[in-house]
Amino acid sequence: MTAVFPRLESGEEVWGTKIGGHMLSANLNKLEKVCRKARVRDLYSFFIEITREEVICEIGGDPDDPSSYDASELEDLWSEDWYSPEDGLSTISCMLDHVLAKKSSFERVEELIEDLQDFKKILNEARVNGIGWHLSHDV
């Protein structure tokens, strides 16, 4: 099952340690509609289309071996976008408020609430520490 979670600019790993993200992923399409209706930025808009690792592989390198690719070529082809935690908090808060108000509309709602609360906590910590983020996933 796919999971979605925030990836922090600091490099701190949060998936599997601070958030599961599976129930949020399973309900994301339904929650994206809630965001659109509320005129709040949807969570998918924080997603990075191509990762650093994918670009390294595309240029014939091994992401685990920096000597296998030219770092300047990588810099020319790829830069990572980071978003303000405040923007993400608006989205997650909208989703969480909706889920809390409409619990019976969701399966495994307690796990979904936990994912959203964990996501919110991570973004709050990022805001306090001035750390950017973007949406990531694990398949």
Count of DSSP H/I helices: 5
Name the helix and strand elements from N-terminus to C-terminus, one letter apiece. EHHHHHE
Low-confidence stretches: none
The helix/strand class is mainly alpha
Tell me the radius of gyration: 16 Å
Helix coverage percent: 40-55%
Shape: elongated
Residue-averaged pLDDT, rounded? 90
**Binned strand content:** 5-15%
Give the structure's gist in a few sentences.
The protein is 49% helix and 9% strand.
Describe the protein's architecture and organization.
The protein contains five helices and two strands; from the N terminus they run E-H-H-H-H-H-E. It has a two-stranded antiparallel ribbon. With 139 residues, it is mostly helical.
How are the SSEs ordered, and which strands pair?
Elements: E1 3-8, H1 22-37, H2 52-58, H3 71-77, H4 85-101, H5 109-129, E2 133-138
Antiparallel strand pairs: 1-2
Helix pairs in contact: 1-4, 1-5, 4-5
Features:
139 residues, mainly alpha, two-stranded antiparallel sheet, 9% strand
